[in-house]
Task: structure prediction
Amino acid sequence: MVSEKSLDDLRQEIDRIDDALHDLLMQRTEVVERVGAVKGINNAALLRPGREAEILRRLVSRHHGGFPKLSLLRIWREIIGGVIGLEGNVSVAVFMPDRGAGYLELARDHYGAVLSITPFRSAGQVTRAVAEGSATVGVMPMPDREDVEAWWISLMGDSPDLPRIIARLPFSGPGPGRGDGLEALAIGRLVPEPTGYDRSWLALETTPDISRARLRSVLSAAGIEPTLLAATQRTEENWLHLVEASGHLTAEDRRIARLVERKQPVLRAVLLGGYPVPFRAEDLTD
Result:
């Protein structure tokens, strides 16, 4: 049985550990501020989803003991969001239709309590806010939802100001009480970084007579492994397909060019970005 004195000693030890954790957090913030001063980075560049994913994966891989991994990741997401908010004027635009605030909660879970988050009623408004620079990042609905506009088509242009897909949410597992399985994609005006465990998104314009099986075969023949045929949109003459592919692709990747060199059935291929693969539920259980 623990005596009253022993219990008091344990509480004092907890206080010392809390102070040490706090000191390290302040030291970490100072180091990150020095990194920002050396690089002179802009607001968009403060967001590094690839680097953030590597940090979180490393922490989970070394974690042991009874403290829940999900709680560990939520703490670090708040740390990352807090430091980003300290370094620059970073804001988040969120798709939030009248029917609910689930996307707003996803955004807050991922980007933390400090960053400014503004809801918009349509995905198009979110895209424009990011493209025009009034928002640094946008949280968008998954394109495979039947009741959602095909917002990904607006990312198919050649302008360097167009947003790119940079993350998939939730990355660190669902937040408390989030059992509805809601997911989203984040967009921003930056180039995704490879992490070793990534997915890429391609928009393909094809002839209208191609089947999903044929499209998978064409992608595989070019050396691209499709993991999801997310959406299809008809135009007046052709079809547009949104495809998720395994690995990290760049705009200069020869495999993308190879798709179009075959002329038929792919007439155009555009890289829309990519993201680090989020944690699975089983990754966060002991």
